[in-house]
Amino acid sequence: MEISKVEIITSMNKVSGLKSALSKVGVTGMTVLQAIGCGVQKGTYEYEPEWREEMELLPKQYIMIVVENSILNKVLDVIKKELYTGHIGDGKIFVSPISNVIRIRTGEEGFKAIE
Q: What domains lie within the chain, and their CATH numbers?
């Protein structure tokens, strides 16, 4: 069974709704970290009249989940729907293949280690 890692960077106020929505489609675990960063807008807020010369690092949430590929597209659709506002700062989603997962306590490998 193939699995993928989905990394999400989004604004600070989106985690609760995303957690609920992902639970409904079968995601069983997630890791959330507070982070600071900026994208191509260099931290410029949408309401600011001019683009910044120097980057401004803004508070963000970094969310990581691992899912089996059979539900990956459904999970990505849920993430996009839940995080979309149409404004600067909605975030980014990065998807990477995972070659293996090992649960240290039991030695289980692959998807069994995360289900």
A: 3-113 (3.30.70.120)
